[in-house]
Amino acid sequence: DSPFLAGMAEREGGFWLGGKVQWDNGWANVSARWTADASGNSKGQQFSLGLERNFRLTQQFMLSPRLVATWQDRKTVDYYHGVRASEARPGRAAYQGESGVNTELGLRGMYLFDRHHSVMVDVGVTRLHSGIKNSPLVDRSSETGVFVGYMYRFR
């Protein structure tokens, strides 16, 4: 709802469907995931390759670093970060998004209080590809995120 976005059509979040495969080879978890916008809003698709390793430091504490590369097609980038000619204004030029690969580096820590209760903290930084960071709607080259969660296991 920023005033900078005044005059732009609303972009919907979409409903993404796809598949994921994961291989735990004893050294690391390797994963591949493909998703497509089933809602038809962006009509785009994404593909990710990830590498994650779990380190159990004590009986209760685990650290999991990860590296993920996510390719986004032109339709996805253009829908969420593009500026149509009809939306262009002084200071907000028309922009057509391009496909590219975002790179994420993250670390998750998990503490298990007992068999049932645990908490986790996940921090990550994603380097945005040029098709996104060159958009007049984007004012940075990376995104950071923090997730804090509690988990209860029933078994």
Tell me the radius of gyration.
19 Å
Q: Distance between termini?
A: 44 Å
Shape: elongated
Q: Which stretches are poorly predicted, pLDDT < 50 over at least 5 residues? A: none
Biggest sheet features:
8 strands, antiparallel
**What portion of the residues fall into strands of 2 or more residues?**
over 45%
Sheet/helix structural class: mainly beta
Structural write-up:
With 155 residues, this protein is mainly beta. Helices cover 8% and strands 48% of the residues. The chain has helices spanning 74-81, 130-133; strands at residues 16-24, 29-37, 45-52, 55-56, 61-72, 100-112, 117-127, 142-152. Strands 1, 2, 3, 4, 5, 6, 7 and 8 form an eight-stranded antiparallel β-sheet that branches. It is elongated, with a radius of gyration of 19 Å.
Key terms:
2 helices, elongated, 155 residues, 8% helix, 8 strands, eight-stranded antiparallel β-sheet, mainly beta, single chain
Detail the topology: elements first, then pairings:
Elements: E1 16-24, E2 29-37, E3 45-52, E4 55-56, E5 61-72, H1 74-81, E6 100-112, E7 117-127, H2 130-133, E8 142-152
Antiparallel strand pairs: 1-2, 2-3, 3-5, 4-5, 5-6, 6-7, 7-8
Summarize the structure.
The protein has helices at 74-81, 130-133; strands spanning 16-24, 29-37, 45-52, 55-56, 61-72, 100-112, 117-127, 142-152. It has 155 residues and is mainly beta.
